[in-house]
Amino acid sequence: MNSLGLYIHIPYCLHKCGYCDFNSHKINTEEMDSYVKALLKEMAHYAQGPAGDRQIATIFLGGGTPTTLPADQLEEILKTISDRFNVSADCEITSEANPATVSLEPLQRMRTAGYNRISIGVQSFHEPELKLLDRIHSEEEIHMTVEKAREAGFDNLSLDLMFALPGQTMASWEDNLAQALAKDPEHLSTYNLTIEPETAFHTLEAKGKLTLPPDDFQLEFYKKSIQTITEAGYQHYEISNFCQPGKECRHNLIYWHNGDSLGLGAGASSFLDGSRFKNCNLPSRYIREIETQGTAVEFSEQLEPSQAMGETLMLGLRLREGMAIKPFEERFQTSFHKTYDHTISSLAEKNLITLDKNRIVLSPEGLFLADSVILEFMV
Ligand code: SF4
Fold it and tell me: Is 65 in the pocket of ligand 1 (CB under 6 A)?
């Protein structure tokens, strides 16, 4: 049976961080109750329809901050998924969590309910950097959250860190990496801070009150991350992601292989049977539309083969193992080499990709220019 990844968006946070351009909104208890009811109703719609006969290989609660919901709602969400869908016996079930939103008892209840992976938004172990990032939690709360997650029985734990912060020194970044590695996480994600339109940081940058380090310095931070984390025994399996052997995020691997996924909740996107669709962003509108229509899709399109090929390549190249050519050719019934002949030759000449008859992979040089290399296949 053709499996898929199920994503559930919980769009609430204790506070909106200055750099955040995710679909996240300040907590509102009354709305959150209606939101969970709407989610359960949306599940029923898809379980009776296009996803009903598919096996769920992974479940991922992201946000926002899923752990702003009380444990009984997190339990109810998972129970309803299990009741409605065909969930695989070894399903990876992740919830994102932010420090300052979870204590031991809800973590234990989540673990008992079946959540088996937790992804904690650390961002930095340094108090001044947390303040600069406009994060609401303290360094102490990070240590406590990781400790409680372990105590609750989470043996698959991921930490997120952010680098290239304004004024950040390499020594500070090295210390952040060392502190993260000291927690022995099964998975580690490191992202550079970017300034996105319509965020508070964008306004600050426009006023000259916030400046990111120059690109070459950002590259040094990235190289330091790869060196330090791989020397600690982790596999660098995706541009920004590292794991202990066998602990890749299986849910994200579905995305990177451009596999099928169903997204439920405000602003969630889906890719199912060649069709892409997305729900409306605003939680109150999402609730209203689910209540009246059962769905809240505001956009859908059937991908042209050329679009689907470009996206498969774009996502596959993010993986350090690159993209396998034979499955690509079987999926799209085309010759990879003939389709991308010109782009391949030009990138190979510049040593930005390596290619054999089985795989196309970003070279170490290409890795540092990944965004622009990948774009070459999209034009
Ligand atoms: S916790 Fe995450 S999702 Fe929520 S506002 Fe901050 S960055 Fe955005």
Answer: yes
Write down the residue that tokens 């991350």 correspond to: 225
Q: Is 98 in the pocket of ligand 1 (CB under 6 A)?
A: yes
Distance CA 23, CA 6 (A): 18
64 in ligand 1 pocket by Cβ < 6 Å?
A: yes
Ligand 1 center from residue 69 Cα (angstroms): 15
- pTM of this prediction? 0.96
Same fold, 3-256 and 309-376: no
Task: Determine which residue's CA is closest to atom 3 belonging to ligand 1.
Answer: 64
Q: Tell me how far apart the alpha carbons of residues 101 and 24 are, in angstroms, rounded to a whole number.
A: 15
pLDDT single digits (tens) 328-341: 999 999 999 999 99
Q: Are 338 and 318 in contact (CB under 8 A)?
A: no
Neighbouring residues of 112: CB distance < 8 A, sequence distance ≥ 6: none
CA 11 to centroid of ligand 1, rounded, Å = 9
- Distance from the alpha carbon of residue 71 to the mean position of ligand 1, in angstroms: 20
The architecture in CATH of the region 3-256 reads Alpha-Beta Barrel (3.20)
Helix then strand then coil, in percent of the chain rounded to 5, is 45, 25, 30
Radius of gyration of the chain (CA): 21
Per-residue pLDDT tens digits for 238-278: 999 999 999 999 999 999 999 999 999 999 999 999 899 99
Question: Cα dihedral sign for 250, 149, 70, 97?
Answer: negative
Residue with the two structure tokens 């990844």: 5
CB of residue 193 inside a 6 A radius of ligand 1: no
Distance 77 CA to ligand 1 centre (A): 21
CA separation for the pair 229, 201 (Å, rounded):
29
For the chain, which residues make up each domain, given as ranges?
3-256, 309-376
* Distance of CA 152 from the midpoint of ligand 1 (Å): 24
- What CATH number labels 309-376? 1.10.10.920
Residues in CB range of 54: below 8 A, 6 or more apart: 1, 2, 3, 4, 85, 86, 260, 262
